[in-house]
Amino acid sequence: MVISVCIGTACHLEGSYNVIAAFQQMIEKYSLHDSVKIKAAFCMGHCTHQGVCVKIDSGEVQSVTGTTAKEFFEEHVVAALKPQN
Ligand code: FES
């Protein structure tokens, strides 16, 4: 799974690096180094000014902030990687 985090100007101002740092802490916490990669991406054309644009694999662009990053990770990454049974 690849998580792309936008580091374009608008998103950068919303705290791209806080989001990346939060994701990295979560990867550490759940030992997901082998299954999750974080990639910096350029403007995704979805500058919302309400958060940082984040995309999981080729999914929808979503808005995440430094405060919601950990919750987002648990909901969209940890949950998706959990075995279904
Ligand atoms: S700067 Fe992030 S989507 Fe445009």
UniProtKB/TrEMBL annotation:
InterPro entries this protein is in? Thioredoxin-like_sf
Which Pfam family is one of those matched by this entry?
A: 2Fe-2S_thioredx
Top-level taxon = Bacteria
Q: What is this protein called?
A: (2Fe-2S) ferredoxin domain-containing protein
Q: State the species of origin.
A: Caproiciproducens faecalis
What are the leading ranks of the lineage?
Bacteria, Bacillati, Bacillota, Clostridia, Eubacteriales
